Amino acid sequence: MEFELKTEYIELIKLLKLLRLVESGGMAKIVVEDGLVSLNGTTEYRKRAKVRKGDQVEFDGQLVVIK
Fold this sequence. Notes:
Blueprint: E1 2-3, E2 10-11, H1 12-18, H2 25-33, E3 37-39, E4 42-43, E5 50-51, E6 56-59, E7 62-66
Parallel strand pairs: 1-7
Antiparallel strand pairs: 2-5, 3-4, 3-6, 6-7
Helix pairs in contact: 1-2
């Protein structure tokens, strides 16, 4: 899946919610805190990690490429 970023960055939990990979912002925080999300191949625990163009986010078998 691809996501076109129109700003400099998007926070990780906002991206998960926007793409409807989670049901709510609260659920997004939980999956990140539990180490279920990776950013560029590394487990990401920072809920507000800045996701930028060229990054790859993986969660629940879904790979999102940021364009």
